[in-house]
Fold:
Amino acid sequence: MWWMMGENGGHYCSKKTDDICGDVCGQDSGRVLSMSRIKCILRGVDLRTMLFLFILVPTCVYGIYLHGQKISYFLRPLWESPPKGFNEIPHYYNENVTMENLCKLHGWRIREFPRRVYDAVLFSNEMDILTLRWKELYPYITQFILLESNSTFTGTEKLLYFANHRDQFKFVEPRLTYGNIGGRFKKGENPFIEEAYQRVALDQLIKVAGISDDDLLIMSDVDEIPSKHTINLLRWCDDIPQVLHLRLRNYLYSFEFFVDDSSWRASVHRYKMGKTRYAHYRQSDDILAEAGWHCSFCFRRVSEFIFKMKAYSHFDRVRFKRYLDPERIQKVICKGADLFDMLPEEYTFKEIIGKMGPVPHSYSAVHLPSYLLENADEYKFLLPGHCFRESG
Ligand SMILES: *[C@@H]1O[C@H](CO)[C@@H](O)[C@H](O)[C@H]1NC(C)=O
Ligand SMILES: *[C@@H]1O[C@H](CO)[C@@H](O)[C@H](O)[C@H]1NC(C)=O
Structure:
């Protein structure tokens, strides 16, 4: 760290200069001595100015260049206050409690027959997580709806990964409504516009799948997986909220890195023709506690990390080429550190400071999707102690 050496060195030099001046100029007065005093002072000023100009200024500029984003994130609590809190609905579950009692515990009544359930996702390339998701939800889903595009949200071309690997998903084929949509490829446009465009197309596809009023519709990203028993509860109970957000446990890279339980974007809707719109933002105040898992960047291959980092809506985060270096990515994954070298996005200093640094390792693999544990050999990379990824 050359700039630290510079600072220490600077301190040392200027102290020495002071001493010299003190010695020479301290006791006596007179023309000759005051001349050397001026020289001393000049020398001092020179040194300090030089130090300032050639070490401190470039250091600061370089520091702001490297960490400007961090500084603005760290100061976020000053300019942004947290959104309004949710109405948290306690979630009761144990496999040996009857559905009638579970509904009652939530203040709801049990229905005579369950609602039909539709699960709709916008797909990019999350093959493994999609399998876990569909296997988890399989018993309760009437139609799986999947839309993919040949454009990423950031407007670069991509393959139709699902179409190319459709044979791996034979188990849902009889209940699958699949669609694809051509990208608009507008360079330099805000990625949220392409995303919104694809969500509108997904709305159409949901209708094609045959949804009708009061059917349940799950709106979430592929990696936001509601647990099986959560969906079973919601389809069996009457009086559940019209729009209900799901509080999911946030994981990073695998189930080894449990971040927090603050994921809230996933939601379940009692469908209303002409009113329900597919969205991924805050749509109501009600949220059900511990309703599943959100596994971000849970990929099998390093190349998938790179793809996702480039295709990500917040693509401005890839500020340096070295962020896409496979060796660096592998190290970051095993440490539980941040791929984009950023500070946690939080609303209070306490939370930011509490979450700085890598995510701690977790050694719990309890209450994870059942298909994952039943097929642990195939999905090792998602379990504690297996951070190494396939290259290429
Ligand atoms: C839970 O229910 C199952 C059958 O539904 C039964 O075999 C099992 O003994 C029950 N376990 C407990 C602890 O009550
Ligand atoms: C994307 O898909 C659309 C419609 O399927 C097609 O017309 C277009 O040529 C494709 N674009 C690219 C770059 O593959």
